[in-house]
Each structure stands twice: as structure tokens, then as C-alpha cells.
Specification:
Low-confidence stretches: 226-237
InterPro entries: Methyltransf_16, SAM-dependent_MTases_sf
Distance between the termini: 38 Å
Helix content: 10-25%
Mean pLDDT: 81
Largest sheet: 8 strands, mixed
Structural class: mainly beta
Shape: globular
Radius of gyration: 19 Å
Number of helices: 2
Number of strands: 16
Length: 237
Amino acid sequence: MAEIPLYYVRFLKPPPEEYVIGQHFTIVWAVESDLGDRAYWESLPIICCLQGCPQLGLRVLDVKKKKQTITTTNPLSRDITVTYDPYQGGGTVTRLVIEQLPGKPLPLGAKENIQFGMFLAPSARSSTTGHSVWQNAYISSSSIWVIPIWSAPIHTTVAKQRHFDTLSGDQAERVLRVNEKRIVRIREDTVQSIARHVWDCGLSMCQFLKEHKNELNFKVLIELGNQRERERERENR
């Protein structure tokens, strides 16, 4: 399992962290190797989903560049499928909206915390068995592990007025499983920084936790990074 290469779904422009239900927002994303030096070379179907409030769903918006108009003919759902395009320079651009699903509406002023996730669609998986450490990671038809990504928590509000200019977040999360009852969430920067590569350390840390789980009594562990990498970052400033 360790010999199979890892590729990561990565936000180049993440979802907003503060959001009014009904606002339009844009994400820019890619599927790349851990250091971002190699893009995944084939088209991939990717599932976008919401975790949290069951009354909220996602819709993909169609943008007509010539007329600069936005249409919303796509269905509203908890899970939607988008396509990764390796030939789209600068990342795949997807415009979305979060709306209330049919049924009992949320009252005005209601606040809900949700997370937006992206992972490999079932149709592109070569096996139904997921990775033992990375949650919701699966092997693609090209025998590559595709590691999913989650947004930072999105704080949503139900309001009458919708301000259509949203401010993108600057962080995302990876989720690692220690055992059936415990998971580790690793927050990463989406900008170029040493912190962007923290998930590599997280994978080693999670493996360490699995091997020594019966010996550890700590509830919190902090990975401090590599001293040589920190010195290199200071030199580049």
C-alpha cells in the first residue's frame, strides 16, 4: 500500500469561511502530487459534498463567459459531481451556491457550521476499499491514491439580503484515521508555505499513533516540523 503514489485534491482558492445562504462563490482546485510538482494527468470525476446541516445542499452554477450570465439549471443535492480537467491551466474553476433543500426551511438568522469536501467519485475507483489512514481516500483507475480535502469550517447564516462578494478562506483540512473511534484533523495553508506540506508529517504521525496507541496517554500531539525546512523558509523571506 505504501508503494502506491499519493495524489491530493488541493484547493488553490478555497470556499469562504463566512457565508450567507444563497451566495455564489468560486473554488479553484487541482489534483497534484504532495509537493505540487506534478499534476494528475487524466480527467477525474470528483464528488463535492457538504458535511453538517442536513437542510443544506449544493448546486453547480453555469457561467456563460460571452454574456457574463450565471444560470442555475443544475440540480440541488447534498452530493454533486464535478470533473477535474488536467488541461485547465491554473486549476479547475467551479462556481457553486449553497441553498436550502426542499422541506422544513431554516429560520431567518439561523447559523449553521458545515464543511465542504471533495473526494474521488465511485465511478473512478479501482477498488471499494479505502485507505487505512487517509479517510475517504481511494485508488483511481490509474492505480493512484487520491487523497480528499475538506474546507475549514464554514459559518453559514440565513438572511434576506445576500451579498454576492464572498471572501475565500485560506486553509483546508485533511482527515486521518487513527482507529475506528479516533480521527486526526490536520489544517493546512492553501498558500505556498512550509505549513502546506504538513500532511506528509501528519501521515507519519498517524502511523506512529497506530503503532503506539496502547502506550500513549496524551489527548493532544503537536507536530513541530523539520528544523532544516524552517531555516530554509527563513532564508527565502
